[in-house]
Amino acid sequence: MIDNRRGRTVAEANATQAGDPTRRDMLFLATGAMGAVGVAALAVPFVRQLAPNAQTVAAGAPIEVDLTPVAEGQGIKLFWRGKLVFVRHRTKAEIDEAAKVTVASLPDPQPDSARVKPGKEQFLVVYGICTHLGCVPMGTAPGEGRGDFNGWFCPCHGSHYDTAGRIRKGPAPKNLEIPPYAFLSDSKIRIG
Ligand code: FES
Q: What is the pLDDT of residue 171?
């Protein structure tokens, strides 16, 4: 059957729309990557130069991020392997707040020290994916609400995370996950 308006067969049209998930996913990743760069640029303009290009992101290669421009109290958003990643430069007050919590009282007990790298407690790196049903929590971009525990707030069903990204209130069962990463220098990390 011919779709006369476009000069293609219906089969061809369907293949383009639904039968080529690889191409569709690539387009989504590229779009998502560009969006991430844009968000990071809003928060910290210089980070835009350091963000990976769309091909690197789509390929799932490790990415290197210089955190020097991220001032205390600020955060950035990045994409790695199609997943949103938050990096926050925590203040001393935020670190102290996370450290003083009674770990056994937490829904997903984990000390702050297990969620950061030794000697680099000021930087918290987590996936920006709520562990309830996968929404994107607020609290990284300037002006976003951070919830009752000054970390992140997921507006979908009301999950509150603290300054270590640990679930404190709401339906999310687990803390925000931590991607594989390492420090290459005092302020540069490699994710992946
Ligand atoms: S998806 Fe975040 S609270 Fe439900």
A: 98
- Retrieve residue 103's tokens: 């770990």
For the cut 80, the answer to whether the pLDDT of residue 80 exceeds it is yes
Distance 72 CA to ligand 1 centre (A): 27
Could you list the active site residues?
A: 157
Identify the H or E element spanning 183: strand 181-183
Ligand 1 pocket, residue 130 CB under 6 Å: yes
CA of 2 to the centre of ligand 1 (A): 45
Residues contacting residue 38 through CB under 8 Å, at least 6 positions apart: none
Which distant-in-sequence residues (6+ apart) come within 8 Å of 190 by Cβ? Answer: 62, 63, 64, 65, 181, 182, 184
Handedness of CA 51, 53, 56, 60 (dihedral sign): positive
Residues 6+ apart with CB under 8 A from 44: 69, 70, 71, 74, 76
All domains in the chain, ordered by first residue: 2-191 (2.102.10.10)
| Ligand 1 mutation target, pool 126, 156, 168, 176, most atoms within 8 A of CB | 156
**pLDDT tens for residues 6-29?**
333 333 333 333 333 333 322 222
3-state helix, strand, coil in the chain (%, to 5): 30, 20, 50
